[in-house]
HPt domain-containing protein
Amino acid sequence: MPSKDTDITTAKETATVEGGESYQSQRVPLDSNDGTVTIDFATFEQILEMDDDEDHEFSRTIVWGFMDQATETFQSMSDYLKKKDLKELSSLGHFLKGSSATLGLTKVKDYCEKIQNLGLSRDETGVGRIEDPEVSLAGIKSALDEMKKEYTRVRDYFIGYYDNPNGNHQP
């Protein structure tokens, strides 16, 4: 079970809970590039706090809904990439950015923001202008590919979490 503080640690912490049982926190660095899942647990804990029961039915519904939404959005993004429709790609990036941020999925949110910006013919940061649509499309394809990898890690983490919500889950 994650702690209730709101800071994000850069290393896993070990703590002792009532009864002397040890566990490691679920917090991971936001800038992790080592294949671990990057979740802002302060944000995700806010969703967990809305659960009324031990089976986490409320949060499970939100997470499963996000996973369905993400899968459908990825397919739509692939379709619009083939059509070279930057406007729709930007819109889909914006759409998925909000729901991923709600769950604390920082890397997924960041990739969505890149796609949103590239679809508006801006650089990934949203500051500079991109004149060549093919450059934007290539950037979107790259961001989408990376986002799908991160989504797979997040999905696997959540499946493990909801299969055993009181267990030790290492993202």
In short: The longest helix spans residues 133-163.
